[in-house]
Amino acid sequence: MPEPRPKREFTRSSSMVSMADKDFRRFSEFIHTECGIKLPTSKKTMVEARLQKRLRLLGMATFREYNDYIFSPSGLSEELSHLIDAITTNTTEFFRESKHFDIMRQVVLPHWVAMRGLVHPLRLWSAGCSSGEEPYTLAMVLSEYAEKTPGFRFSITATDISSQVLEKARRAVYPEDRVAGMTYDLKRKYLLRSKDRLKKLVRIVPDLRERVAFSRLNFMEEFSFNDPMDIIFCRNVMIYFDRTTQETLLNKFCRQLRKDGHLFIGHSESLTGMDLPLRQVSPTVYRRT
């Protein structure tokens, strides 16, 4: 008896190996316009690999079919968030680039208290917050500072373009190895262990979770806050943008940043040569002039 033929989806998946160069150019231009992310030809294989699951879930046989769907009115409204989730890279960890948090404790927060006093709560924005490790780290740092500075108050706004990572951030559940670099005291104060020890999971305590307000935001759209921010963290996000997009975005940040407020960027990022109302106070830390 002959062996049964494979199901259609398996034969179909074998044909999903390449996107036509013309389709990729159209696709990459769209992503750049919508999200600011640059996708050179060298990223084509990565894009194809990341979109395979979307094609299977939608029952589509080719990238051309997917492209046509994306550029249709219904596809644009229904698929865009899934597309962004698939394309964006979300690599982060607690206390990443730890020098920044030392500067926060030793320089920025004392400066803010000296300039503003304790009448107004400090407003901080984690822009491009991914799955929440950065804003929760900041919440720990600010909570520790508040314990030593009676009357100090703060609020944290955290945004990302990806709905998928924002859901992870709100759940605030992480593998134990993700918090390996935290001190014992911080773990004891701010983390809960899973009742099922085999799962090796931890969760941010409720009091800290309530300190962070998460919402979706696309940097390519116009945005504003009711009140200016005192501190903005946008680290290792702009590396995915071209220089023109970076400078446009940084000017948007400056409009949201209070005079004498601070901007933190990633250690692999640079503002050299850009016309911005910022003065460097430390490597990758700037103050609004």
Automatic annotation (TrEMBL):
Name the chemical reaction catalysed here. L-glutamyl-[protein] + S-adenosyl-L-methionine = [protein]-L-glutamate 5-O-methyl ester + S-adenosyl-L-homocysteine
Q: Which GO terms describe its molecular function?
A: protein-glutamate O-methyltransferase activity
Does the record carry Transferase as a key word?
yes
E.C. numbers = 2.1.1.80
InterPro entries in UniProt: Bact_Chemotaxis_MeTrfase, Chemotaxis_MeTrfase_CheR, CheR_C, CheR_MeTrfase, CheR_N, CheR_N_sf, SAM-dependent_MTases_sf
* Taxonomic superkingdom: Bacteria
Q: Which UniProt keywords apply?
A: Methyltransferase, S-adenosyl-L-methionine, Transferase
Q: GO biological process: any one?
A: methylation
Indicate the segments forming the CheR-type methyltransferase domain, all copies.
12-289
Which PANTHER family does its entry note?
CHEMOTAXIS PROTEIN METHYLTRANSFERASE
Protein's name according to its UniProt entry: protein-glutamate O-methyltransferase
Q: Which organism is it from?
A: Desulfolutivibrio sulfodismutans
